[in-house]
Amino acid sequence: MRTSSSWRRSLGNVRSFVGNTLGGLRGGSNLASWVVAGTLAYFLWVKPSQDLKREQQEKAALAAASDPYRYIEKRKPIPDPQETGLIYGKKRETKESDN
């Protein structure tokens, strides 16, 4: 019987700790305070960082479009036909097994 009261007490301690950590509010006032805190956090931290990132991307796109003489790779490079990957040099010799 002692074990059941032990885990109930520890569960109560955990609930009390969580409640105190959240500010000691319960029910609707607790939910309302979290909504207000989340809204403030969004408008003070998240939205400005998203706006800044979007603005930087727009500036980069405008800068890329405004320079007509910049180099653009329009075709894929031709692969080297040699097996070694060297332009000059001896090809890798294949080993033939003698049976």
From TrEMBL:
<feature type="region of interest" description="Disordered">
    <location>
        <begin position="74"/>
        <end position="99"/>
    </location>
</feature>
<feature type="compositionally biased region" description="Basic and acidic residues">
    <location>
        <begin position="90"/>
        <end position="99"/>
    </location>
</feature>
<protein>
    <submittedName>
        <fullName>Uncharacterized protein</fullName>
    </submittedName>
</protein>
